[in-house]
Every structure is written in structure tokens, then in C-alpha cells.
Design goal:
- The strands form 3 sheets. The chain has a 10-stranded mixed β-sheet with strand order 8-7-9-6-10-11-12-13-14-15, sandwiched between helices.
- The two termini are 42 Å apart.
- It folds into 3 domains: 2-104, NAD(P)-binding Rossmann-like Domain (Rossmann fold); 109-334, UDP-N-acetylmuramoyl-L-alanine:D-glutamate ligase, CATH 3.40.1190.10; 345-475, Protein-Tyrosine Phosphatase, Chain A (Alpha-Beta Complex), CATH 3.90.190.
- The longest helix is centred in the middle third of the chain and has 20 residues, at 289-308.
- By secondary structure, the chain is an alpha/beta fold.
- The protein is globular and about 60 Å long.
- It has 15 helices and 21 strands.
- β18, α13 and β19 (409-412) form a beta-alpha-beta unit.
Length: 484
């Protein structure tokens, strides 16, 4: 019985570790874990872990570790970490089995026949959530594992019936290549994590390897790098994008036509149109055309699955997936998607200024967020950005500056290290030097000056603790008209 197995997880509060811990507990494993974030007695995971009967604590406990069967770590845990060192020694004595986080995910999903994985530099959480939403509302009862928090999955996971699983991958440490998913979606490839890969070409090569080791791979043809993949291996690619390719190397191509805030859909096979949504388009309550295109990719992914498993399509839609009725149904289901926390998350308004919170921490993500707000608001927009990681800031300082310049006013918080060692000369000011506008430098939690300006809206961006900062600030501020 799995309840005899004990699992110890280092960094259990991490965005990739937490849902694995919760899923593992639901599957009958006894989960233990440590994370210094739990030093905060008000951390919400204290309550969540208690609900799932998980014993989690702020400091390492080697005595507990010595009595566990499995040890799980992420790439954020170095070999010099006291728990990992102890686990390595125990493993030498055949007393414990060691899993990287991605290996443990594969282990937990080992009995699922169908696995779907989402990859890309950005947009993974939103798209995984959208595809999971589609599968759930098709009554396919999938297991879902997400790094963020979809509003329909407050604990970032769902235990399904053990047949279908969907999850997002992590390219930052190359662990996405450990995935054994038979259906895969790649959203984009941008320069990031070059400290791990060495150069951009190595990153591209890794994504290409990811794309070929599966039954079907859906790729964004609007991405210049991804658009080259079918020329190398064309048998299993399905494409999507806003421009119809000149070649017919895709099995199917999902073309999105954006009109105002709605993305209309056409499907092509061998450059012949087989479906036209006409008046049926993808639209969400939250702004951003990039979300609409991610939704297009999610529909293409679910389509590819139902194409291979007609019985699932008949059972869930009452029709073959190639019928107009079935595609229209997917669009209607997706349009009810409720969103993801920290992805264009509207927090309310203070002193007449609308406030958004977003996880964007890469230049292209920031650019998409500001563009989306520019489409919605006609007057001044401010951005508050917390740079994330010394290595990323060093590699992309100029690109960050260029993206941030689209806003009318720019505020920079101190850099969030995410556990990295400082690099001399790499601070928020490094980005500020390349911005050709006035830049304001703020201390953490000091936002008063922003809300006495004449802005339509302000967006708080970053992958560190900026979200906690603004939410705590707003909870103490009056008058705040609405918090969602």
C-alpha cells in the first residue's frame, strides 16, 4: 500500500513542489517537507498542508529524513544543502530513493495512459490551466498539476481518475526533457536561463528534443524559432497562429483571426479549410490578446487528443471532434474559463486608479501585459516591476528596459534574488540605466506615492514577493473600492 511510503521534500512551498506534495498526499503517501518560507507563521500553506495531513516545517529535520523512503528535491536545492547531502549518503546505503521533482511527477503519474505537457518560456501556467479546464468540463476527470493558481483550482492541482493527466513543465533546469508525455504543446522560445544552457542555440536544441519525443506536438507558428521545427520532423506537428503558413507540413493548422477582443478560429488540413468558427470566437473577461492565442493552443492540444481517441470525443461531446458542433463546444467551454491568479489579476481600485497584479518576469511577458492594458485604458499607465534573479537581470537588462518603456511611468523595486548569489553590479539600477524615461526607485512596501498620481491603472509585475507586498498594502489602505 502506498500509505506505507514516506516522502521528504526539500523546498516544499515551491510552485512546482507544492502541488506534487498535495497530490502525493491524496494518493496515499505520507508527506514531510521543509521550507524556510514556513518561518512566517501566517503563511497560507500552514493551513493547506495541515488540511492535507502534510507535516511541513521551516527548518531541516534529518531525523525525519532518515526514516523516509523517498527524498524529493528541485534544482533550487544544491548538492551542498544539508538535506540533500544527507539523502545522498542514505542513498549510498540503499536506505532512501532520491527523485528530482520532475522524476517524482513522472512516478506519481506512472499509471496514467494519457499525459499532456505544456512547455515554453512564458504562458505555461495560463495555458495548462485552460487545457485542464477544457478536459475537466468535458467530464474527462483529468489529473491537473499547475505551477500557479487557477481560480478553479485553488490548491493548484486536481486528482483525477488516473487515466488522463496534464501538467506544465520547467525548462529552466532542462528537467522538461524528463517528461514522458505523449501530447505536448510548446508556446514560445525566448532567451532565458542562458546561465544554464550557455547560449540560445542550446536552449533551442533542447526544445526541439522535447518536441519530437511524443505522439503529437502542437507548436506556435507565430514564434520564428518554432516555425522551423516541422521542416526537420513533420509527421506529428499541429500548428497554430495568426498567419497561415505557406507550406503544408502541419497535420492541422489552427488559424486565429483577431477582431477587437475576440479571436475567431479556422482549421486547415493540407491548406484546405475544414472549419470556420464564423461568429463563434474565443474571448475572456480579462484583457490580453496573448491569452486568446494561448487559448487557441489549448484548443489545438485537446483537439489532437480527441482526434486520436474518438471514443472520448463521442462520450464528452456527443460527436466526432472534427464536427463543427464539437469545435464550437470547445470554444464555448473555454470562454467560461475564470482565469489564473497573478495573470492580469484585477485587484480593485484605489484613489480612482485600477490595480492589476501579474507574474510577468520576462521582457516579452511584460510587453504583452502592458500592451493589453494599453488596449483597455487610453490614458496614463504605470508599471511597478520587481526584477527576479541576478542571472536573468544581467542577461536581459536591455530587453527589460525596452519592454518597460511602453508604460508611461516606471517604478523599480529592489531585485528579488530567488536564492541566487549576488552578482557585482547587477541590481535594479542596471535596468534603469537603459530606460529612456524617468525611472522611480521604490523601497519594498512603499507605494504611497503611486496612488497620488494621475493614472488610469498601475500593474505590479514580477515573480518574487511583489504580489504579497501589494496585496498587504491594499488590505491596509482606504478607500479601496473592490478586491477580487
Amino acid at each position: 500500500m502506498t500509505d506505507t511510503y514516506k516522502v521528504y521534500m526539500s523546498g516544499i512551498c515551491g510552485s512546482g513542489m507544492k502541488p506534487l506534495a498535495l497530490l502525493g498526499s491524496k494518493l496515499g503517501y505520507k508527506i514531510f517537507g521543509s521550507d524556510k518560507a514556513l518561518s512566517n507563521l501566517n503563511h497560507p500553506l500552514h493551513r493547506i498542508f495541515k488540511t492535507y495531513h502534510i507535516d511541513a516545517f521551516p527548518n531541516p529535520d534529518l531525523e525525519i529524513l532518515n526514516h523516509c523512503d523517498f527524498y524529493v528535491y528541485s534544482s533550487a536545492i544544491s548538492e551542498e544543502h544539508i538535506e540533500r547531502k544527507e539523502a545522498i549518503e542514505l542513498n549510498r546505503q540503499n536506505k532512501i530513493q532520491i527523485f528530482h521533482r520532475m522524476d517524482f511527477l513522472n512516478y506519481l503519474l506512472r499509471n496514467h495512459e494519457i499525459k499532456l505537457a505544456i512547455a515554453g518560456t512564458h504562458g505555461k501556467t495560463s495555458t495548462t490551466s485552460m487545457a485542464g479546464w477544457l478536459l475537466q468540463n468535458l467530464c474527462l476527470n483529468p489529473t491537473i498539476i499547475v505551477g500557479g493558481t487557477p481560480k478553479f483550482l485553488p490548491h493548484s492541482f486536481q486528482k483525477g481518475n488516473g487515466y488522463i493527466a496534464i501538467y506544465e513543465t520547467d525548462e529552466s533546469d532542462g528537467s522538461f526533457l524528463k517528461s514522458n508525455a505523449n501530447y505536448r504543446l510548446i508556446l514560445n522560445i525566448d532567451k532565458d536561463h542562458l546561465n544554464y544552457y550557455g547560449d540560445f542555440q542550446n536552449l533551442i536544441d533542447s526544445f526541439y528534443k522535447f518536441s519530437i519525443k511524443c505522439r503529437n506536438c502542437i507548436i506556435n507558428n507565430d514564434d520564428e524559432v518554432l516555425a522551423q521545427f516541422p521542416y526537420k520532423e513533420k509527421k506529428h506537428y499541429i500548428g497554430y497562429g495568426t498567419i497561415l503558413p505557406e507550406h503544408n507540413l502541419y497535420r492541422y493548422f489552427f488559424k486565429g483571426n483577431l477582431r477587437q477582443d475576440i479571436l475567431y478560429l479556422q482549421i486547415y488540413k493540407n491548406q484546405d479549410i475544414i472549419y470556420d468558427s464564423k461568429n463563434e470566437g474565443i474571448h475572456f473577461k480579462f484583457p490580453g490578446s496573448h491569452f486568446l492565442k494561448n487559448g487557441l493552443g489549448a484548443i489545438a492540444l485537446v483537439f489532437s487528443l480527441l482526434l486520436d481517441y474518438p471514443s472520448l470525443s463521442i462520450r464528452s461531446l456527443g460527436n466526432d471532434i472534427l464536427s463543427n458542433f464539437s469545435i464550437n463546444s470547445l470554444i464555448r467551454i473555454l470562454n467560461r474559463f475564470t482565469g489564473v491568479e497573478r495573470r492580469m489579476d484585477y485587484l480593485g481600485s484605489l484613489n480612482g486608479i485600477h490595480i492589476y497584479d501579474d507574474y510577468g518576469h520576462h521582457p516579452n511577458e511584460i510587453l504583452n501585459v502592458i500592451k493589453a492594458l494599453k488596449e483597455k485604458y487610453k490614458n496614463r499607465i504605470a508599471v511597478v516591476f520587481q526584477p527576479h534573479r541576478y542571472t536573468r537581470t544581467k542577461e536581459l537588462a536591455r530587453e527589460f528596459a525596452k519592454a518597460l518603456e511602453l508604460a508611461d511611468d516606471i517604478y523599480l523595486l529592489p531585485l528579488y534574488s530567488a536564492g541566487e548569489k549576488p552578482i557585482p553590479g547587477v541590481t535594479s539600477e542596471l535596468i534603469g540605466r537603459f530606460i529612456r524615461k524617468n525611472v522611480h526607485y521604490l523601497e519594498n512596501n512603499q507605494f504611497d506615492t503611486i496612488f497620488y498620481q494621475d493614472y488610469d491603472c498601475v500593474v505590479f509585475l514580477g515573480a518574487g514577493d511583489i504580489s504579497n507586498q501589494i496585496r498587504e498594502y491594499l488590505s491596509l489602505s482606504q478607500p479601496l473600492r473592490k478586491i477580487m
